[in-house]
Write a structure and sequence with these properties.
heterodimer; A: 248 residues; mainly alpha; MetI-like fold; 9 helices; 0% strand; flat; B: 263 residues; alpha/beta; Rossmann fold; 4-stranded antiparallel β-sheet; 37% helix; ABC_transporter-like_CS (chain B); ATP-binding (chain B); nucleotide-binding (chain B)
């Protein structure tokens, strides 16, 4: 009851400013809109770790010195860096998803949702960007330090795990944070395949209500807020990992 | 040096190695007994450091026999076998190469714990003892970037010792240091040799080599020109090239002062 009053008060107040938020008083549209926020946050929360883990694996492959690992990843990185995410998503959903559906005997058996394809496409796209940044950091580790680790009996993987990646992650962190900010924005491509994230939900509302400006204000504020948090967390991690007496 | 005995811990026989077109080692024969301190001296590019890298299986020669602590290094075919050998042979480099993102203590315990699978508590205890030995106990929680070159190099030595190696190779470990800190590193090595650690040093510190070595080896152009006691090599050699080299280096007073510098 209290909540209803608050909503009513808000709608009234905004109405006086000439902003139309009347849809908030309805059940259906308000619900879609609220779910949109949650879906976007959910997308961001799932895609960020996917991009980081895959980015690390890609970087490891690129610097492995083994052609059968580096060549396919190099190909994928080039393809994904140089083509629009929207096109990649369309291709994945309309072509790959259809192939999967045919393989499992019909769309009703296909476990892969549009949500999955957004996570996969955006996650791998940003992973390619991370991979390039981390690769640069891995290759920047002096060869004499790698030789010293080899001399102590480290295997190639152990050098990567204990020496190269900890150093590369630190040096590539600013680039990684940029990649994550771009990731947050890229989750909006989901609206192209009807994932009801916040832009999709907002479009649903404004096509009915003709309140584009009102919805835009909230959209812009929402994404600004998420990326503000991402950037702050990024610089916090950077400070936490800073090495005393070292240039990173 | 020439006789092959059971005491031999390192034995190189007619070792040839080239990088591409460049012949680096042109038939190296060298025997080192357990507990010995051997210095390898000679001009830059004579193959000194490459000899150490052969012993540690960091490079593989094209031909010749290398036996290290009972292992035929030249016959190792898999990287995993070479890794097993490297765990038993410590090596310290010119550039210290501490891991900059780890504290001094973590630098020392990383390999024993993660690579050898040693017990964590025991390793930390050993690391603190080693830090005491190299006189850096108070720096356990410092990062390498906060230490001087000499301090970093002493940590690097402690790090090598934490693996409990059967022998330690020192590759020009004082060459990157400023003159004031050379003494503190040499002091640590001298101590180690007195404790009976088999040590092979590539060095330009002639006075030091003379003082601590059981045997001095002179290399030039990929070959061992001569070897013998420090007295022989530094004072009674008939070889004019060695005389010129030794005289040219020690005559300048370099190294004379720093041996006496304690900490």
């Amino acid at each position: 009851m209290q909540d209803m009053n608050l909503t009513g008060l808000f709608i009234d107040l905004m109405g006086r400013l000439g902003l139309n938020y009347e849809f908030l008083a309805t059940g259906y549209e308000a619900q879609i809109w609220r779910d949109g926020f949650i879906t976007t946050l959910y997308l961001v929360a799932v895609t960020i770790p996917v991009s980081l883990i895959v980015g690390l694996i890609f970087a490891a492959c690129l610097t492995s010195g083994r052609l059968w690992l580096s060549a396919p990843v190099r190909g994928f990185v080039e393809l994904t860096r140089n083509t629009p995410t929207l096109v990649q998503l369309m291709f994945s959903f309309l072509v790959l998803n259809t192939v999967v559906s045919n393989m499992v005997g019909g769309a009703q058996n296909n476990p892969l949702s549009p949500f999955f394809w957004v996570v996969a496409v955006v996650g791998l796209h940003v992973a390619a960007l991370h991979a390039e940044a981390i690769r640069g950091g891995i290759e920047a580790v002096p060869s004499s330090m790698i030789e010293a680790a080899r001399g102590m009996g480290f295997s190639q993987f152990e050098i990567l795990r204990y020496v190269q990646i900890p150093l590369a992650f630190r040096s590539s962190l600013p680039a990684i944070v940029n990649g994550l900010i771009s990731l947050v924005k890229s989750t909006t491509v989901g609206n192209a395949i009807a994932v009801s994230e916040i832009t999709y939900a907002s479009i649903m509302v404004w096509t009915q209500r003709d309140n584009v400006v009102e919805m835009m204000i909230v959209l812009l504020a929402f994404f600004s807020l998420i990326n503000f948090v991402v950037a702050r967390v990024g610089s916090w991690v950077e400070r936490r990992l800073a090495i005393p007496g070292y240039g990173l | 040096m020439t006789a092959s005995t059971d005491a031999a811990i390192v034995k190189l026989e007619d070792v040839h190695l080239s990088f591409g077109q460049t012949q680096v080692l042109k038939g190296i024969d060298l025997t080192i007994n357990k507990g010995d301190a051997v210095s390898i001296i000679g001009p830059s590019g004579s193959g000194k450091s490459t000899i150490l890298r052969c012993i540690n299986a960091l490079v593989t020669p094209q031909s010749g026999k290398i036996t290290v602590a009972g292992t035929r290094v030249d016959q190792l075919t898999k990287e995993s076998e070479r890794i097993q050998l490297r765990k038993r042979v410590g090596i310290v480099f010119q550039q210290y190469n501490l891991f900059p993102h780890l504290t001094v203590l973590d630098n020392i315990v990383l390999a024993p714990i993660k690579i050898l699978g040693a017990d964590k508590t025991a390793t930390v205890k050993l690391a603190r003892e080693l830090l005491e030995k190299v006189r850096l106990s108070e720096k356990a929680d410092a990062y390498p970037g906060q230490l001087s070159g000499g301090q970093q190099q002493r940590v690097a030595i402690a790090r090598a010792l934490a693996m409990k190696p059967e022998l330690v190779l020192f590759d020009e470990v004082t060459s990157a240091l400023d003159p004031e800190t050379v003494g503190e590193v040499l002091w640590v090595i001298r101590d180690l040799i007195r404790d009976g650690m088999t040590s092979i040093l590539v060095t330009h510190e002639m006075r030091f080599a003379e003082e601590i070595s059981d045997t001095v080896v002179f290399t030039e152009n990929g070959r061992i020109v001569d070897h013998g006691s420090p007295q022989q090599i530094f004072h009674s050699t008939n070889n004019p090239r060695i005389r010129q080299f030794v005289g040219g280096l020690s005559g300048g007073g370099r190294g004379a002062v720093r041996d006496g510098e304690g900490i």
